[in-house]
């Protein structure tokens, strides 16, 4: 039986970042994935690094998102140094646009909300928005500049984190489907795979949308898939520096010249086939925002499965089962929250507490009796 200090189910960006954090703390870590690592939500995302809430339900996540964004540049630089690979980190901000006749009212509301949450947001006119991003449509009447935000090439980042983890001593196992958590009495003692058992002092479930299918985990991680479709375009005449938002689309520039347009939100279980209807919606909205993209080439159209939860918030921390921690359910924010999730998980395991309050996200919140909430709470000291 293989034995580790820490066994992690799920080798996407979250699992790999945690593995890297713990390996650098001197622990022997095994990272297990049902397929080739990094090919699920980490591969399918856009890489937007924004703590701004997309809905009222996401407001409790703002502080955690801000904390993760604050350490992202250092995280990206360390990963590049350790792996020898670039991650496409672009700290150029976000421009949220408005084109309706009520644009000024919408802009004022958005700016006030962001300021109330401690987020930088600067109102700009449509004319000034086009000075910042000349490719924008003439129909844009106003915009909000969010200068502290960034983006990253999530596919490159995930590959680099996995390589950094390997070089730091993490043992990575692909094609190893995790069937269940391994129990010894009342504690979690590792993982049960299809053909073997893995022994570990600490076990972490970070399997994204598939976390709840691991036997013994569903009560802590009621995660379900949320399908999202995206398209990658290339048009040499279009130069975009910042992430661009409208009410119907976001556009994310890449260092290689592509522009990613996304994304749909569909609850269709584990079905992930790209569809013509979604592609048409994405293209229409992208061209409305940046008209020159009408001449762009479609380089790729894909779908992925985000790990959503009943309250749309991540599930982070220890459970009431000794030895078992959860790090899943990041929904739309997995790329943003990877550094802080790794940091917090490392603190739970090495310190027994965290330096950031995470009580809102503890795995016991879905339990009818709430037992164990004290185990997953943070410590602001």
Quick description:
With 381 residues, the chain is an alpha/beta fold. It has helices at residues 13-24, 41-44, 62-70, 72-83, 103-116, 126-132, 154-167, 276-289, 334-350, 373-376, and strands at 2-9, 29-32, 48-49, 94-98, 122-125, 142-146, 150-151, 171-173, 178-184, 187-193, 197-205, 224-234, 243-245, 250-253, 258-262, 297-308, 315-318, 324-328.
Task: Give a verbal description of the structure.
With 381 residues, this protein is α/β, with parallel strands linked by helices. It has helices at residues 13-24, 41-44, 62-70, 72-83, 103-116, 126-132, 154-167, 276-289, 334-350, 373-376; strands at 2-9, 29-32, 48-49, 94-98, 122-125, 142-146, 150-151, 171-173, 178-184, 187-193, 197-205, 224-234, 243-245, 250-253, 258-262, 297-308, 315-318, 324-328. Helix 1 (13-24) runs parallel beside helix 7 (154-167) and helix 4 (72-83) packs across helix 7.
Q: What's the layout of helices and strands?
A:
Blueprint: E1 2-9, H1 13-24, E2 29-32, H2 41-44, E3 48-49, H3 62-70, H4 72-83, E4 94-98, H5 103-116, E5 122-125, H6 126-132, E6 142-146, E7 150-151, H7 154-167, E8 171-173, E9 178-184, E10 187-193, E11 197-205, E12 224-234, E13 243-245, E14 250-253, E15 258-262, H8 276-289, E16 297-308, E17 315-318, E18 324-328, H9 334-350, H10 373-376
Parallel strand pairs: 1-2, 1-11, 2-8, 4-13, 11-18
Antiparallel strand pairs: 3-7, 4-6, 5-6, 9-10, 10-11, 12-15, 12-16, 13-14, 14-15, 17-18
């Amino acid at each position: 039986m293989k034995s580790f200090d820490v066994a992690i189910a799920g080798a996407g960006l979250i699992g790999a970042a945690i593995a890297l954090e713990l390996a650098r703390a001197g622990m022997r870590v095994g990272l297990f994935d049902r397929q080739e690592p990094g090919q699920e939500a980490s591969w399918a995302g856009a890489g937007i690094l924004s703590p701004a809430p997309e809905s009222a339900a996401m407001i409790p996540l703002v502080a955690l998102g801000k904390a993760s964004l604050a350490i992202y540049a250092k995280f990206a630089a360390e990963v590049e140094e350790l792996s020898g690979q670039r991650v496409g980190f672009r700290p150029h901000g976000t421009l949220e646009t408005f084109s309706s006749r009520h644009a000024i009212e919408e802009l004022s509301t958005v700016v006030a909300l962001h300021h109330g949450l401690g987020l930088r947001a600067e109102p700009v006119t449509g004319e000034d928005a086009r000075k910042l991003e000349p490719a924008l449509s003439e129909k844009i009447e106003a915009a909000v500049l969010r200068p502290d935000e960034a983006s990253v090439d999530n596919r490159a980042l995930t590959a680099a984190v996995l390589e950094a983890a390997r070089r730091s001593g993490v043992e990575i196992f692909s094609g190893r489907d995790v069937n269940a958590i391994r129990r010894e009495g009342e504690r979690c003692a590792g993982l049960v795979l299809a053909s073997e058992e893995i022994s570990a002092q600490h076990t972490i479930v970070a399997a994204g949308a598939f976390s709840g299918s691991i036997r013994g985990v569903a009560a802590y991680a009621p995660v379900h898939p949320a399908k999202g479709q995206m398209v990658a375009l290339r048009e040499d005449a279009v130069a975009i520096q910042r992430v661009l938002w409208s009410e119907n689309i976001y556009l994310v520039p890449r260092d290689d010249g592509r522009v990613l347009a996304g994304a749909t939100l569909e609850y269709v279980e584990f079905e992930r086939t790209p569809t013509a209807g979604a592609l048409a919606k994405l293209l229409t909205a992208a061209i409305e925002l940046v008209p020159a993209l009408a001449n762009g080439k479609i380089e790729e159209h894909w779908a992925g499965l985000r790990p959503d939860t009943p309250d749309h918030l991540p599930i982070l921390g220890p459970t009431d089962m000794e030895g078992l921690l959860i790090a899943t359910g990041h929904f739309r924010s997995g790329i943003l929250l990877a550094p802080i999730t790794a940091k917090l998980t490392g603190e739970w395991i090495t310190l027994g507490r965290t330096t950031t309050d995470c009580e809102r996200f503890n795995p016991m919140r879905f339990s009818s009796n709430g037992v164990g909430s004290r185990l997953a709470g943070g410590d602001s000291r």
